[in-house]
Amino acid sequence: MAESFRSRSRSRFALAIGFLLLICSAASAMWLSYQQRIADGWVRHTYTVEAGLNEVQMHVMRAEIGRRGFLLLGTPESIATYTKARKALPTAIAMVEGLTADNLLQYQRIAALRASIYSKLNTIDRSIALRRAGRIADASRIVGDTDAQADTARMLAVVAAIHNEEARLLAQRLSYASAEGRLVRLT
After folding, report:
1. Where are the domains of the chain?
2. pLDDT score at 183
3. What CATH number belongs to 2-186?
4. What pLDDT is attached to residue 160?
């Protein structure tokens, strides 16, 4: 009888240990799954920042296209292209700024980008005003002006720095997400 009692006690103990291990395994799987979701979220965040930055660049390019079209043709459609792009830029910049608020260096770069974009827009506004005043040659000279080219170069350098940082972050985040994914699959 004592032997039977010991045998049942060992069985219960083994069952309890097995159940405890099962609970630990389930908790570990849930934790790793949670970590995987966080890692995937950061990867998506990086892609969202990139998409937002591309949208900013697109609006700047459309503003420039509108300006050049207006300088060449003087058509209302050209100025409408510029106006639409100029109106869309503050929202697009603010979106990227909000997305990068967690990264001080990127946030500062966005501030520098904003300044260089508005400097470029002021240059565009001057050339449009000159074209409207009939001073077409003066308006056209602004396009190739060294200050205007410097504004564009500064803007492109900041954009490149932002893209490079996002590429670095993406590689880091993809590596982490991949490692987390492997751990989740193992459990």
Report:
1. 2-186
2. 55
3. 1.20.120
4. 92
